[in-house]
């Protein structure tokens, strides 16, 4: 890496790490451009030399706090051989962690990422490649998919190959399960449901399992 790219990489990480520290100390909703700039030791305008949108900075900082989830979902899915079981297991882990850290998961999977949301995950893992160490290729494909509606597709395509799911049902299964989770998470974040994180995760998984059972072969 040449000096210019190395300097840019360092600056990029300064801001991401500053935002990550604020999230850890005060929560994701407390992050502002001014706070990040002050903590990193630069003025606010400098940040926009490295991030097209504030939401991108928040996305990358939130990803720094998802390492435990990515490690755990990989571990659990590796214990399954049936693709549909892997899909169910992935959802169980996703619900468990997302309702424990709703603002983090909202920043990564729901928040408006502006006009240029593509390839953000690839860029993140380019700067933090160690976060993907030992992740199997099939799971890696799901983790690298920016569009949350498509994240389960590699696993569901294998479920079709194994005969546990019809090809024409992939899109419906993937989309409906995502919509269930998004609705529950938004209600949870906005205090529209009276539930603990564990209860919200359990209720979401009840509906996800219902959909999977109805659509599987």
UniProtKB/TrEMBL annotation:
Keyword field contains DNA-binding: yes
InterPro entries: Homeodomain-like_sf, HTH_TetR
DNA-binding region(s), chain positions: 32-51
Domain called HTH tetR-type: residue spans: 9-69
Keyword NADP: no
A Pfam family hit: TetR_N
This protein's UniProt keywords: DNA-binding
Name of the featured protein: TetR/AcrR family transcriptional regulator
Organism: Sporosarcina jeotgali
């Amino acid at each position: 890496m040449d000096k210019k790219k190395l300097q840019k990489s360092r600056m990029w990480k300064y801001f991401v790490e500053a935002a990550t520290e604020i999230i850890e100390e005060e929560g994701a909703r407390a992050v502002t451009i001014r706070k990040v700039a002050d903590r990193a030791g630069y003025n606010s305008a400098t940040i926009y030399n490295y991030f097209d949108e504030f939401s991108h900075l928040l996305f990358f900082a939130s990803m720094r706090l998802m390492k435990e989830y990515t490690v755990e979902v990989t571990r659990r899915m590796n214990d399954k051989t049936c693709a549909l079981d892997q899909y169910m297991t992935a959802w169980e882990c996703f619900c468990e962690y997302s309702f424990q850290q709703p603002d983090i998961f909202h920043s990564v999977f729901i928040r408006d990422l502006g006009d240029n949301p593509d390839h953000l995950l690839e860029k993140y893992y380019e700067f933090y490649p160690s976060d993907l160490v030992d992740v199997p290729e099939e799971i890696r494909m799901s983790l690298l998919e920016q569009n949350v509606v498509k994240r389960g597709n590699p696993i569901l395509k294998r479920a079709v190959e194994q005969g546990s799911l019809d090809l024409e049902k992939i899109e419906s299964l993937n989309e409906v399960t995502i919509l269930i989770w998004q609705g529950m998470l938004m209600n949870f974040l906005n205090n529209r449901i009276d539930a603990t994180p564990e209860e919200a995760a359990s209720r979401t998984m009840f509906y996800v399992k219902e959909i999977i059972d109805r659509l599987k072969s």
